[in-house]
Design goal:
Elements (H helix, E strand, L loop, with lengths): L15 H15 L3 E6 L21 E8 L6 H5 L4 H28 L5 E4 L35 H7 L4 E2 L5 E2 L7 E8 L20 H5 L5 E11 L2 E8 L1 H8 L2 E3 L15 E3 L23 H14 L44
Antiparallel strand pairs: 1-2, 2-6, 3-6, 4-5, 7-8, 9-10
Helix pairs in contact: 1-3
Length: about 350
């Protein structure tokens, strides 16, 4: 029998319009929930450490893809009973499993036709830039004069905006007309010329209702110190975020003035659980980063509820998301366990269950 292999150079991608249609169809076939294209000139004002041309100087097009965070992956957090699902399926599983397969397969499809493609997802563990956009000293150095230090970090939310997939909300969360803030973003850089999509000009998504700000458990937004940028001729503004505080809040912690006998986070002796965490200790990571104990309470859940109430999202549901009052944990009172809760020290015999 003959060896089976992929076909090469059998699709004519010389026409940017036809090539864009081909690439978009393939992206959807491989698992993207929405796909748009931005021409590289839209990144002309990108900071050095976020400039795609620093990675691929001959880049002509950037393909942006949205991967939905299932509304159901937030259900266990909303009810306060099943936290790991959002971190594993709605966060880490998309970031480290599903999205990489999609962007890799799309890049292979483009390279089959003789054009170079770089698959990129949410992974940025080696980035030469911190969460506030600054280059750390004594981490890496340019390999040629005039180049950025490794590794470049392309701002994915800005990339999605420049690919026409939606808008950036006041919370800095990317909002799509299909899913609102329930998105993860992947991109592909390529030297293939593709017809770009227009910048999003559909129904306004963010109306600055402030639900994201009011419902952030750590109050991590500074609405009096906003960030304003010009993206391909469009003025975009969002509230500044205290990223260090968000990093603590995200994991369900509050920092105290004094060390704790049993700290919530082992690496932070002065940490204790916040009212948005039911755990005595921070749960272990899932898929490297999955520890979203706060469950994006303000920036995703509150925003989503507001957008769904306004009826502006294409992915609508038969039932509203919030069906019971939001819960909080009072750590100053002893726990009350429900009937049927079994502890190992009770020596209770339980039959095996499939």
């Amino acid at each position: 029998m003959a060896i089976y292999s992929r076909n090469f150079n059998d699709v004519d991608l010389s026409d940017p319009v036809k090539a864009a249609d081909y690439v978009k169809r393939k992206a959807m076939e491989f698992g993207a929930d929405a796909v748009g294209i931005g021409s590289i000139d839209r990144w002309n004002t990108a900071p050095l450490q976020m400039d795609p041309k620093q990675i691929m100087p001959e880049c002509k097009s950037i393909i942006g893809m949205l991967f939905r965070v299932e509304r159901g992956s937030l259900r266990g957090l909303e009810e306060g009973t099943y936290f790991s699902n959002y971190s594993s399926m709605g966060y880490g599983g998309i970031t480290y499993l599903y999205m990489p397969m999609t962007v890799i397969n799309l890049s292979k499809t483009i390279e089959d036709q003789g054009y170079e493609a770089i698959p990129m997802g949410h992974q940025s563990d080696w980035r030469g830039i911190d969460a506030d956009g600054f280059t750390p000293r004594n981490y890496s150095r340019p390999v040629r004069p005039g180049q950025a230090t490794p590794d470049i970090m392309i701002q994915l939310r800005i990339a999605a905006f420049l690919c026409g997939l939606g808008e950036i909300g006041f919370s800095k969360m990317f909002l799509s007309p299909q899913f609102g803030p329930r998105n993860r973003i992947g991109i592909v850089l390529t030297d293939l010329e593709l017809e770009p999509d227009p910048i999003y000009d559909g129904p306004k998504l963010c109306n600055r209702c402030g639900e994201c700000i009011r419902n952030c458990p750590g109050q991590c937004f500074d609405v009096n110190n906003t960030i304003k940028v010009n993206l391909a001729g469009h003025e975009v503004e969002w509230a500044n975020i205290d990223t260090a505080k968000c990093d603590i809040t995200f994991r369900g912690a509050v920092l105290t003035d004094e060390p704790q006998d049993k700290p919530y986070m082992q690496e932070r002796p002065n940490s204790k659980p916040g009212s948005w965490s039911p755990f005595y200790r921070k749960p272990r990571n899932l898929y490297n980063t999955g520890q979203a104990v706060c469950g994006a309470r303000g920036c995703t859940r509150a925003c989503m509820i507001s957008l769904e109430k306004r009826g502006v999202l294409e992915n609508s549901f038969k039932e509203k998301f919030r069906r019971r009052p939001p819960w909080t944990v009072d750590w100053n009172t002893p726990p009350v366990y429900s009937k049927g809760t079994l502890f190992r020290d009770q020596q209770t015999k339980v039959s095996d269950v499939d």
